[in-house]
Amino acid sequence: MMSFDWSSLILGLAIGAATSAVFFAGLGLGMRMALRSVKPVAVLVLSAAIRIAALLGVGWIVVEQGGPWSLLGYAAAFVIVRFISLTVASVSTPSGGAQ
């Protein structure tokens, strides 16, 4: 049976929160750039590819260094930051889509 490692979990949470914040900031930037672009699909695809590769690459490094508990923390941090980002985005958007 595997022992619970709090330090690895907290390491995964910390790195996951920072990486996820950058991921969603990149999503917002990519959306703004795509809305101004002549070819928005190309911008969105490139943005998604870069963000996903970075998220998975950092996740791979975290797991290699911290083990499976750090992976749990990393994934949990992504879900938490995603929830916070969606909540902030829905609060700041006017109801009905009109200003």
Briefly summarize what is shown.
With 99 residues, this protein is an all-alpha fold.
Radius of gyration: 16 Å
Give the number of DSSP strands.
0
Principal-axes shape call: elongated
Order of helices and strands: HHH
Which percent range describes the beta-strand content? under 5%
Our measurement of the CA-to-CA distance between the termini, rounded to an integer number of angstroms, reads 57 Å
Detailed description of the structure:
The chain is mostly helical. The chain has one domain. 84% of the residues lie in helices and 0% in strands. The chain contains three helices and no strands. α1 packs antiparallel against α2 and α2 runs antiparallel to α3. The model has no long low-confidence stretch (mean pLDDT 90).
List the helices and strands and how they pair.
Layout: H1 6-36, H2 40-66, H3 68-92
Helix pairs in contact: 1-2, 1-3, 2-3
Keywords:
99 residues; membrane; 84% helix; mainly alpha
